[in-house]
Design a protein that fits this description.
Length: 442
């Protein structure tokens, strides 16, 4: 059995016998010579087969030619033949002169989607959509980005956790909860690992991280929301303020984006027309009240009854950060306690503000972080002020009754980062299999 060679390795291989496996991208079935472009997970190569003719010029029996003539786009096969380097070949400077084709699985000739199909149609046929190199590259970038973050954490002695996604009570609030039957009772799908990553602090773990699923029963059809998403979370002990969390967060992102630029920068430039920028540190930091004043001076008044920022306000403050600091990222800090969870620590000199932030990337919020309130009496009172019953939070409050260090952390949406990094129009394209209010398949 001939060993399979990945197509990306053909350029470095010597001329001679070779075997590649993949799927058919195109076929040119000409009178004298046939060409097949075969693609695998690493690239594409041209297969060549000169037709065989008898001495009188009539077509001779030719099994390979007959097989090529019957090929449909998407057919998976193994091709064996002789590799030849030829700089005249536009596709990688190599081609394979075919000796044989072994069909693994034929494809239906009519393809249900095209390059210009609507995104929802493409999501219906996601496994075909992901054969497109541009779309497949998104998940190679995701792999590199996650690996770089994990490396950064592990090199600094963080512990990786896998927290449960079935919970007895809400992890954030009672809104946007998916309720599921659980034997003779009910459970909820975790909106975030918030409670459990905080539990690691009184456990003495010090620094932890998790990359895992989270669920929000949000009936939103915007370009940046999903009902199931991958959350990137970290929590650290012995902090002085949310500044320590922001410093950790920005260093982590620099490590991730530097790895993406080094490994995929050329491909991103070619397929997305995007130049990956590795941001400088520190990222700009703007208190929310000041950000709202800046946005107002730019001619936009945030039309909200509460103290929060809205999407257009985020775009405006991001534009300001680009113009003023030349930066794609900006931290909005010191959010009002009225719009933050009960477990965010409040300013020592102003209980109306919290030691918290949102991180904006290219005009969209990708993360919320904060210093947590670790004093049990203060935490319990803040829960009451938010209308929560401390008895229903008893298991969570237990974490704080036996000693806990000052701590803080963040949660970040992975697909949002990829969407904004690559200039994608919506979250669907940055998610392997998207879940929204009307999509449960494939």
């Amino acid at each position: 059995m001939t060993t399979r060679t990945l197509i990306k390795n053909l350029v470095a291989s010597e001329d001679g016998p070779v075997s590649v496996s993949g799927w058919v991208e195109t076929v040119r079935d000409q009178k004298k010579v046939q060409f097949v472009v075969l693609r695998d997970e690493s690239g594409a190569v041209q297969l060549v087969h000169p037709r065989i003719f008898a001495d009188d010029g009539t077509p001779a029996e030719d099994v390979v030619a007959d097989t090529i003539s019957a090929l449909s786009q998407g057919t998976f096969l193994t091709a064996s033949g002789d590799l030849k380097h030829d700089e005249r070949v536009k596709l990688g400077g190599v081609e394979i002169k075919l000796a044989s084709l072994d069909i693994a699985a034929s494809a239906i000739p009519e393809t249900p989607i095209a390059d210009d199909s609507a995104v929802d149609k493409r999501m219906d046929w996601r496994f075909l959509d992901l054969r497109v190199p541009r779309n497949a590259l998104i998940f190679k970038i995701q792999t590199t980005f996650e690996h770089a973050m994990r490396t950064w954490w592990i090199d600094r002695d963080f512990i990786e956790l896998h927290t449960p996604k079935l919970m007895a009570s809400a992890s954030e609030s009672k809104a946007e909860l998916f309720e599921v039957g659980y034997f003779d009772t009910k459970a909820y799908l975790a909106q975030s690992p918030q409670f459990f990553k905080q539990m690691a602090q009184p456990a003495g773990f010090g620094k932890i991280f998790e990359i895992g699923p989270a669920f929000r029963a949000d009936p939103s059809f915007t370009s940046r929301h999903a009902t199931e998403f991958t959350s990137v979370d970290a929590e650290i002990s012995w902090i002085d303020s949310h500044e320590d969390v922001m410093r950790m967060h920005e260093e982590l992102l620099v490590a991730g984006l530097a790895a993406v630029k080094e490994k995929h920068g050329d491909a991103i430039r070619e397929l997305f027309d995007i130049e990956v920028t590795v941001p400088s540190t520190p990222f700009p930091r703007i208190p929310l009240a000041e950000a709202k004043r800046i946005v107002a001076e730019r001619g936009y008044e945030v039309p909200r009854a509460d103290d929060d920022m809205d999407p257009e306000g985020e775009r405006q403050i991001a534009a300001y950060a680009r113009e003023t600091y030349g930066h794609e990222f900006v931290f909005l800090t010191d959010y009002a306690s009225s719009i933050r969870p009960f477990y965010h620590m409040r300013h020592a000199d102003d209980a109306g503000l919290t030691n918290s932030y949102d991180l904006i990337f290219n005009g969209v919020e990708i993360s919320t972080g904060a210093q947590r309130e670790h004093r049990i009496d203060v935490l319990t009172e803040q829960a009451r002020q938010k209308g929560l019953d401390p008895e229903e939070l008893d298991f969570y409050l237990d974490f704080f009754r036996y000693g806990v260090p000052p701590h803080g952390g963040f949660g970040m949406g992975l697909s949002r980062v990829l969407m904004l990094l690559l200039g994608l129009p919506n979250l669907r394209e940055a998610t392997y299999l998207f879940r929204g209010p009307t999509r449960l398949t494939p």
